[in-house]
Amino acid sequence: MKLTYVCFEGTPQELDASEAVRELARQWSGTVDAVRRTPRVVVDPESDDEVDYGWLVEGDVPGVVEEGQSTVKAQLAFNPAAQQFLDFMAEATSWESVGVHGIKRKTWQEGDPLDYTGYLRLRRKGSQYGGFVYVFASTGVINFRLQYSDEIAELAPDAYPLTKGNYQYRVNIQIRDESTLKQALALAELACEAT
Q1: What is the pLDDT of residues 56-102, one digit of tens each?
Q2: How far apart are CA 53 and CA 47, in angstroms?
Q3: Residue 54 region, left (φ>0) first, then alpha (ψ -120 to 50), else beta?
Q4: Residue 32 has what pLDDT?
Q5: What residue ranges in the chain does DSSP mark as E strands?
């Protein structure tokens, strides 16, 4: 099987008007999928300046409670692999007893909402450990509660070791495409089973 992936950047109107894009699409055999995400560019009526609010993320982010939805969606709006990140969240939160949690900041007091701006924790209910992964919606980076090893390198060639931070969380991967999504899910399953 041969797969060719090409990404064209431009507004929908520019891409529709592009003779080069039409010619390339005609040359490809098979199915050509055109993904159309809706940009959220707003024109300020007073200054006529355009403000880019990223991509509109429709639906809920799997596992995230209502109070964190808008914050996480705002972060995902600028993640070029937002769909793969959502697929990761959907799969990982479907596992038995897995929950998504925001963060209690140092100044947190009883009754304060959790913070969803930096990262999210995926944690097994009843686990004596913290989260088995930390996920960053804005970048698609996943930090696993694993030690980097040859087994990890073989299972996830795009994963990389960390030398700083918490000594128990030493493996990262950035979800950029379907391949890194599959690797991230395999590592998350290992980390989940270990907690």
Answers
A1: 788 899 999 999 999 999 899 889 899 999 999 999 999 999 999 99
A2: 17
A3: left
A4: 39
A5: 39-43, 50-55, 98-101, 120-124, 133-136, 141-144, 160-161, 171-174
More confident of the two residues 71 and 47: 71
**Residues facing 80 on adjacent strands:** none
Q: Report the length, in residues, of the chain.
A: 195
Question: pTM for this structure?
Answer: 0.73
DSSP state of 61: P
Which tops the pLDDT comparison, 23 or 65? 65
d(CA 83, CA 158): 19
Distant-in-sequence contacts of 34-43, Cβ < 8 A, 24+ apart: 36/12, 39/11, 40/77
Query: Do residues 92 and 101 touch, judged by C-beta distance below 8 A?
Result: no
Q: Is the pLDDT of residue 166 over 50?
A: yes
**Measured distance CA(171)–CA(161) in Å, rounded:** 5
